[in-house]
Amino acid sequence: MGRKFVVGGNWKMNGSKAMIGDILKFLKEGQLNSETEVILGVPAIYLDYVKSSVPANIEVAAQNCYKVDKGAFTGEISPLMLKDIGINWVILGHSERRQIFGESDELIAEKVAFALENGLKVIACIGETLEEREAGQTEEVVCRQTQAIAEKITDWSNVVLAYEPVWAIGTGKTATPEEAQTVHKAIREFFAKNVSADVANSIRIQYGGSVSGATCKELGKQPDIDGFLVGGASLKPEFVDIVNARA
Ligand SMILES: O=C[C@H](O)COP(=O)(O)O
After folding, report:
1. 1 within some domain
2. Could you please report the per-residue DSSP string of 164-199?
3. pTM
4. Which of 37, 94, 96, 128 is an active site residue?
5. In total, how many domains does the chain have?
6. Among the options 37, 110, 128, 164, which is catalytic?
7. What InterPro entries does the entry give (predicted)?
8. Whose CA is nearest to atom 6 of ligand 1?
9. pLDDT tens across the length of the chain (247 residues)
């Protein structure tokens, strides 16, 4: 069976009730390709609100959650809380969590494992910095980040991997389709060698980093790109075109 195209819109720390109203309006009016799975990554405070007003063909994801079920962890939310309000997805290990909030490969892997154990589906993010790319370390970095997760989980069926080169995030500098494809292929080879041929064939790998209505079609044609994780453009009507990149 082919891999279903999956497009995430990561709103990051953006939005207001008014803005969410505008976003939901263009999502409801746009003809979203039913062959594409659509997931909105929503700030925690708006999860319940968005979940209650989003069309049924769109999933809602948290942008983070912690690795235990409850307790004295001020400011954190748990997978159980997300499930309690009907949220089925979480984005973990985004480069902003890694770079700004100092989350390690190990912590992210623990969060992925705990989220999966508690019935969430996970978009797990990986990607190299500009410095690492220029030092020729791209594949080493994304494999190290993936390996950390592979040490904590065996079942990858509820995981989508998002390859997001840090230098392409929010910079307007999209990786070329060839650059992205090369890394996606390397990640799939990592799975074939270190996990299983089955997982290598079935895992969906999104590309993220300045994806726009203008760049999505060529990126979406690459054989190992199975969707996108979109930041800035997911707040705008062009997100509909990105969802429909393969249509
Ligand atoms: O999660 C999304 C990525 O960080 C991409 O963000 P961007 O599309 O604004 O570059």
Report:
1. no
2. --GGGTTSS-PPPHHHHHHHHHHHHHHHHHHT-HHH
3. 0.98
4. 94
5. 1
6. 164
7. Aldolase_TIM, TIM_sf, TrioseP_Isoase_bac/euk, Triosephosphate_isomerase, Triosephosphate_isomerase_AS
8. 231
9. 599 999 999 999 999 999 999 999 999 999 999 999 999 999 999 999 999 999 999 999 999 999 999 999 999 999 999 999 999 999 999 999 999 999 999 999 999 999 999 999 999 999 999 999 999 999 999 999 999 999 999 999 999 999 999 999 999 999 999 999 999 999 999 999 999 999 999 999 999 999 999 999 999 999 999 999 999 999 999 999 999 999 8
